[in-house]
Fold this protein.
Amino acid sequence: MNTHNIINFLREKGLKVTSQRLAICSFILSRKDHPTAEQIFQELRDEYPTISLGTIYKTLHLLKDLRLIQELGFNNGSIRYDPDMELHVNMICSKCGKIYDYKTKNVKNLWDAILSELNVKPVGQRIDVYYECDDCKNINST
Amino acid sequence: MNTHNIINFLREKGLKVTSQRLAICSFILSRKDHPTAEQIFQELRDEYPTISLGTIYKTLHLLKDLRLIQELGFNNGSIRYDPDMELHVNMICSKCGKIYDYKTKNVKNLWDAILSELNVKPVGQRIDVYYECDDCKNINST
DNA sequence: GTAACTGCAAACGCTTTGCACTCCC
DNA sequence: GGGAGTGCAAAGCGTTTGCAGTTAC
């Protein structure tokens, strides 16, 4: 979703388009690494020095309610925000916490088979694979 | 794992078998509903009035390090503890938060397919399906 | 006897809330 | 002009930590 689309989307919902809100939406909707609220805060501070964590959280909740992002809670209590609402596998490095999304037709087919077995209408899903990424492997072997 | 096995397991690891530790281990290892630390605390209080949350957490971390349980972090910041270390799907009611585990051949197939496609050695996994359970459906329809 | 464990309370980290001020519409 | 949105600071809540006292071995 580009800036223009975000503006229209917010207006359609009767929401005000402020510069902070636009910045936060553009940021999270374009990121593929599932940042935390704190990371968003730090990265937007350069351009918006007065932006606050409270605003970040309020905007993220808004996007969650609008079903544009999903929250991923982790064992250390942190929450990361994922703008990909389609079925995918979260590939998570157990050392550095880096995440990338993985999607194939095969995953979709197998997932559909499981859902038909379960006979439920899911309102959401989450598939995590924890592994050691190449960067962390290399650090260990040096 | 019954009480006798737990005692032997702890002894083998050189850990002391205290009544609190035994109670917490027996409790979490036999529960299928993935309780929180607070729930364990409340339920054990009757029998062990002086037990503390600190001890619950320390014991849970111990069991995690021993790979007898896994932690599941959620969006509200809470952590729930799951004694099933085999591959399974967590069926989670999005309304009441109730969880039950689901295992079939297809789940295993999905997992094997993903792993062979990805060509990684996983160190763990997590598969959640969020849905509305029968109890919550009935409440809504009355 | 002593090292590990417990219970308590304080500290911690992330998230939420309340409210006065600001700015979009 | 009015109400939604922002920023700040305080409060909230689950988890972790530190330490003195206790207990298993």
In short: The first helix of chain A runs from residue 3 to 12. The interface with chain B takes residues 71-79, 89, 91, 94, 102, 104, 106-107, 110-111, 113-115, 117-118, 120-132 of chain A (CB under 8 Å). Chain A has a mean pLDDT of 93.
